[in-house]
Amino acid sequence: MTECIFCKIINGEFNTEFVYQNEYAVVFKDINPKADTHLLVVPRKHIESLNEVDDEVLLGKLMMTVKEAAKVAGLKSFRTVINTGKDAGQEVFHLHIHILAGSIRL
Ligand code: 5GP
Ligand code: ZN
Asked: In the annotation, is 98 catalytic?
């Protein structure tokens, strides 16, 4: 059984609502939003961080997912952030891309 909180969310253990999802990733609202809109794009596959990525196709799919999720959420302007490593502020060690829009409190 996985201890990873994002894997649990992907597995539906918390009934988290997905704003958007596709074959590669799910997108849901951050529990502690740092902007008016704060979404997380999370690959279905458990990868600890950007440092562990060796699949350039998946990375491309994730960036396309950012674009698609932003469109579904009605966002025209948004910031994307990937925290990589503890010292950079990564708290959850399952790769994810933040989408922030509106008033950003970072
Ligand atoms: P990091 O600091 O690792 O880049 O970002 C992790 C993000 O995940 C944080 O913004 C935090 O608020 C969010 N987060 C942590 N646990 C949960 C959770 O159980 N549900 C949701 N929706 N977001 C979470
Ligand atoms: Zn995971």
From this structure: no
The domain in which residue 35 lies consists of: 5-104
Q: Whose CA is nearest to atom 17 of ligand 1?
A: 31
Q: Please name which of 99, 43, 58 lies closest in space to residue 75, comparing C-alpha atoms.
A: 99
Task: Count structural domains, the chain.
Answer: 1
Those residues with Cβ within 8 angstroms of residue 33's Cβ, 6 or more apart along the chain or in another chain: none
Residue with the smallest CA separation from ligand 1 atom 12 is 32
**What percent of the chain has a predicted confidence (pLDDT) above 90?**
96
Is the pLDDT reported for residue 26 higher than 90?
A: yes
What pTM does this model have?
Answer: 0.98
